[in-house]
Design brief:
It contains eight helices and 17 strands. With 329 residues, it is of the alpha/beta class.
Length: 329
Amino acid sequence: MSNQKQDEAGNKLDQLKDGEKIRCLIIGSGPAGYTAAIYAARANLKPVLYQGITPGGQLTTTTDVENFPGYADGVTGPQMMEDLQKQAERFGTEVRYGTVTDVNFSGPRHKVLVDDEKLIEAKVVIIATGATAKYLGLESEEKFKAGGVSACATCDGFFYKGLDVAVVGGGDTAVEEAVYLASLCRKVYMIVRKDHLRASHVMQERVMKAKNIEILFKRNTKELRGDKVLKEAVLVKDIGEPSEKEEIITIDGFFLGIGHTPNSYPFSKYVETDDADYIVTTAKSSKTSVPGVFACGDVQDHTYRQAVTAAGSGCMAAMDAERYLGEND
């Protein structure tokens, strides 16, 4: 959001005097948000949940989910989110469309502006806005998101067992993805823009020990090709040198290992965040630096980033919110 739009949203929030008053507001609709809603509704907190820009979160871009407990035959990401929404609504959660554009957490009631026009005043707020995977910005990435492109090796690596894949990036995240995939795949290419890895020494040693990982230094990805599924990647070799030329590798999967951006705006004006903008929570809880404001899921977790861990932290947030209201209602 531009500075001008930020200022406009802030001014609008200050101008609105009387907002809708609710007990529990949940912002975000992935596994964390919906699980928080299920627990909050069962505790009679009468939660209202706003789905955000992407209802269902990152899992709506995942075709098959096979590692979430309870789905013995697997499930598609969109179907799983639909199931969670129905379960939350069954217990009384009010699910709404809308995106939070500004907040004011300075008073006893937490003020939240939705879509730059509707003011909510909540006793407790649960932030479950997740994180957005970083992509290269190639048009062909979008084409193959459901047919070869992934930002989560732990989620999707199993589908490429015995096949050839590539991982983009040279930091710890990329190395972790590559090492994990090397245990499943026949061949793993690491596409690294620089002439060296940025990962820690320990992680670099793991890569070097893996016989089926090949590091392609000084490469950029130009294009991904295939029909309905990915077949090859076009790389630019020897970036910036006179010998620069195109190179093609044959792959079945293309994994992004260049990090995530937590969706912590506009909350970071009030709640503490770390150097990477993840919301900081108190150890073994979902409590943020603002009393009555809790965070769960990928917006505060840069380590695991799994649907099941997000759901678990959503449970924690609802229980923490219930305790807070019991002590401060």
